[in-house]
Amino acid sequence: MAPELKIWRGQVRAWLAETLPPKLVQQHDGPVDLSVFRNVSDAEETRLLEAVRVYRRARYDAGYGTLTLPVEQGGAGLSASYAIAYAQEELRFAVPQSSELISVSTGLVGPAVAMFGTSQQRQNYAQPFLRTDLLACQLFSEPGAGSDLAALACRAVRDGDEWVLDGQKVWTSGARHAEYGLLLARTDPDVPKHKGITAFLIAMDTPGLDVRPIRQMSGGSSFNEVFLSGARVSDGLRVGEVGQGWKVATTTLSFERTASGSGTRRKGGTFDDVLGLARSLGRTGDPVVRQSLADLYIRSVLKAATTERVARAAAAGVSPGPGASIGKLLASDLLVRTGDVAAELLGARVTADAGEPGQFAWTQHLLGAPGYRLAGGTDQIQRNVMAERVLGLPPEPRVDKDVPWGQLARG
Ligand SMILES: Cc1cc2nc3c(=O)[nH]c(=O)nc-3n(C[C@H](O)[C@H](O)[C@H](O)COP(=O)(O)OP(=O)(O)OC[C@H]3O[C@@H](n4cnc5c(N)ncnc54)[C@H](O)[C@@H]3O)c2cc1C
Asked: Rounded to two decimals, what is the model's pTM?
């Protein structure tokens, strides 16, 4: 039986107080990191990852690792209201900044392997991913398969007890720091596209697997291309049945849409940062600036209310459904608008580092915000979901639904 939430929350708070220092009040006079994507060297990334891994392991060992996953899959079997309470308690403490790779390992790949894997895979991989002993990236997107992920072309051909992989993945966050990847490959080109896909775990140091960083316009290289040329993976690393990969993929992506942001590093500037900027520039009396600030404030309150509604629905055991799409769209829109108001305030100063504290930091925000409109499903795809599932508009024509993948025209 689940513990009483109030008592449990007290235990969490006591454990956090023993484990972490309290969060200090944010100082606004030093350089502020407003980047949307972390821009650090590989050595620094490893150091930051290690700090969060130490915390994650302690958290896992204390029984707070994966709260909502069933007990038999290595979780605590608690409802989402416990996860929300945990995240709220964490806010009081200096939690080491998480990163996309940590969320992918503990929130996507770990739970997916726990759900679809064999008991041996759960023990050897799911538990280490959930405890961050091993880190795993998501090898889903390809140059010709992003929004239309089921069109993916990376091939896996069986050879005895192994599979031989050939193809290319792209936009793989954290691939240079991951020990494993959850990879989707086409195992049967002669059935409709959703039916011929199989999921595998692959070690990132497998011969024939080549990771190449992608330099982003914001300066860093958090994404990668991953090339596979005759890379071999044992059938023992297949996750789920042959041809069941689409189910593994959609389940993993549903974890992504409802992932809690606890401990995640903040992405870009906020309304408070823009307000601080307007104050420091002495512009809060300007009626046009006041109008922009009011608009931004209203949008940030609406976004927070939507996030809260999705969280409450999850806590009540209701699938957030299209609500998660509305939340994602509001979040990416707010991020872009926040950057726009900051750029209006800064004018030409946003393009060059003139040495004024905190001002050039907005360049990082402006260059990173567009990427957030794509990650986890683009704005247009979220709008499609809302059009079809909230407004009940006619669905997009799906002419390729019953056509074997091998007969589809590909660009
Ligand atoms: C920050 C970030 C992190 C990422 N991390 C990973 C990762 O770790 N692993 C991974 O596998 N992938 C990752 N991705 C890839 C991400 O999932 C894809 O970028 C995304 O699904 C969009 O696919 P695409 O880039 O191929 O664009 P496309 O699907 O080619 O879309 C191009 C444009 O066409 C629009 N469009 C496409 N289809 C429709 C439609 N049916 N209706 C209306 N408009 C449409 C899109 O909205 C977009 O504007 C990441 C991306 C980003 C930006």
From this structure: 0.92
